């Protein structure tokens, strides 16, 4: 396959990540707007309580990812990769349109759950395709390229769509996201080569991944540790307006800053992870902990807000390729479900970060409470990583079960 064809395919896959980033994160910048529209009585009584309840839209999306990722990946492991990606993109388009047009909070909540079901499977299958196209020694960079669409979305897509939602209504924002998914469908159809599924795989063989102890440790690292990012990101709009004291017009700029951090962190993390996932995980967890402390102490100032929002986004995003590769390594031959499970894991962090951050806000501890809650989750995450890697030592039972550090991603032959 020519290098130009590979680049076009990778760009198409990254465009899907761009659309997913928009549909996942746009609600965070529009949380007060959505709360005022869908929960008018609660919003009139208490802005904080209504915003905390509206945060359930973010948790519902995250839970949809958790449910959909392993289910779809295991059931469709024999499907040709390209056809599966196209089906997932069609489902994204429909689910996002429903999110835009349904009339009540409860129905929109259900639509966000349904729209999220393809999320993990898309990133999982797209990551396998990208890793195959890039070849051995560049797997994490292939994964990072797919994820770059999501991080770039936070620089360009989410702030612009947030501005559209603030000026023209949040429902139009979701219609724009649906249009991006439709464009991605066309791009994937035109540029991604046909690749076979795993003919020797089955639902039973894929589900064997759950019998491997190190797989559970890897999932816990992402599920708990990543909550630090989402505890902050969910409440970024009220942090800007209530803690920093800036106008709502600075919310999109803050999202740009965080998105720039995510973009830089994603590429740095992908490069660093190819040189050792263990060291990469500890380095970037440490950076995330320091960044959350800095944000909690300086968010009342604009320089502190911008600097540490950038660093929180960068350090969290840098972790993602490392955790993805760690899961693919310890899963051995259950590659499809392992690649998708990473996104279940990270979105448990999304849901739990949003939920516990909302609990802190609703309890009256203020909008800095999510920052300190996120810090606690990140500290637990690095502790889980320390335990997991300690069990890799030769001779331990866990080292013999699912902890082989060698790459296991099998090349997927191109068929056109």
Quickly list its features.
416 residues, mainly alpha, globular, disordered C terminus
What are the SSEs and their pairings?
Layout: H1 3-29, H2 31-38, H3 40-45, H4 47-54, H5 56-75, H6 81-101, H7 105-116, H8 119-134, H9 139-168, H10 170-191, H11 203-207, H12 213-225, H13 227-234, H14 236-243, H15 251-273, H16 277-298, H17 302-330, H18 335-362, H19 369-390, H20 397-400
Helix pairs in contact: 1-5, 1-8, 1-9, 1-10, 2-4, 4-18, 5-7, 5-8, 5-18, 6-7, 6-8, 6-10, 8-9, 8-18, 9-10, 9-15, 9-17, 12-17, 12-18, 12-19, 13-18, 13-19, 15-17, 16-17, 16-19, 17-18, 18-19
Structure report:
The protein is mostly helical. Helix content is 80%, strand content 0%. It has helices at residues 3-29, 31-38, 40-45, 47-54, 56-75, 81-101, 105-116, 119-134, 139-168, 170-191, 203-207, 213-225, 227-234, 236-243, 251-273, 277-298, 302-330, 335-362, 369-390, 397-400. Helix 1 (3-29) runs antiparallel to helix 5 and helix 8 packs across helix 9. The longest helix has 30 residues, at 139-168. Residues 395-416 have low confidence and may be disordered.
Q: What proportion of the residues is helical, as a percent range?
A: over 70%
State the major sheet. Answer: none
* Structural Rg: 20 Å
Number of helices: 20
What is the H/E order? HHHHHHHHHHHHHHHHHHHH
Structural class: mainly alpha
In terms of DSSP E residues, the strand content is: under 5%
> What global shape is seen?
globular
Care to count the β-strands? Answer: 0
Task: Report mean pLDDT, rounded to a whole number.
Answer: 80
Uncertain runs are 395-416
What is the first-to-last residue Cα distance? 9 Å
């Amino acid at each position: 396959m020519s290098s130009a064809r590979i680049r076009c395919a990778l760009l198409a896959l990254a465009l899907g990540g761009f659309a997913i980033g928009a549909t996942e994160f746009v609600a965070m910048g529009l949380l007060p707007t959505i709360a005022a529209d869908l929960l008018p009585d609660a919003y009139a009584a208490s802005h904080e309580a209504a915003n905390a309840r509206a945060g359930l839209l973010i948790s519902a999306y995250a839970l949809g990812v958790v449910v959909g990722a392993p289910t779809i990946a295991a059931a469709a492991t024999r499907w040709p990769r390209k056809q599966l990606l196209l089906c997932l993109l069609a489902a994204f388009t429909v689910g996002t349109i429903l999110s835009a047009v349904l009339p009540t909070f409860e129905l929109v909540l259900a639509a966000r759950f349904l729209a999220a079901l393809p999320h993990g499977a898309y990133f999982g299958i797209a990551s396998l395709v990208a890793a195959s196209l890039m070849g051995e020694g560049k797997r994490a960079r292939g994964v990072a390229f797919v994820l770059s669409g999501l991080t770039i979305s936070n620089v360009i897509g989410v702030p612009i769509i947030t501005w559209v939602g603030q000026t023209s209504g949040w429902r139009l924002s979701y219609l724009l996201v649906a249009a991006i998914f439709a464009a991605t469908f066309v791009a994937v159809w035109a540029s991604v080569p046909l690749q076979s599924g795993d003919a020797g795989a089955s639902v039973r063989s894929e589900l064997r991944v759950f019998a491997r102890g190190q797989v559970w440790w890897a999932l816990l690292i992402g599920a708990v540790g990543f909550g630090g990012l989402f505890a902050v990101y969910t409440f970024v709009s009220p942090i800007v307006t209530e803690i920093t004291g800036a106008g709502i017009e600075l919310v999109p700029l803050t999202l740009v800053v965080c998105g720039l951090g995510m973009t830089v962190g994603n590429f740095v993390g992908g490069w660093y992870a190819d040189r050792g996932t263990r060291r990469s995980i500890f380095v970037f967890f440490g950076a995330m902990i320091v960044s959350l402390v800095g944000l909690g102490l300086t968010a009342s100032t604009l320089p502190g807000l911008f600097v540490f929002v950038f660093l929180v986004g960068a350090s969290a995003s840098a972790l993602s390729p490392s955790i993805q590769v760690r899961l693919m390594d310890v899963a051995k031959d259950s590659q499809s479900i392992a690649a998708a499970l990473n996104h279940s894991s990270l979105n448990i962090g999304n849901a739990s970060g949003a939920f516990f951050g909302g609990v802190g806000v609703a309890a009256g501890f203020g909008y800095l409470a999510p920052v300190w809650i996120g810090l606690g989750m990140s500290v637990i995450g690095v502790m889980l990583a320390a335990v997991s890697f300690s069990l890799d030592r030769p001779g331990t039972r866990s080292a013999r079960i699912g902890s082989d550090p060698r790459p296991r991603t099998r090349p997927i032959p191109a068929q056109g």
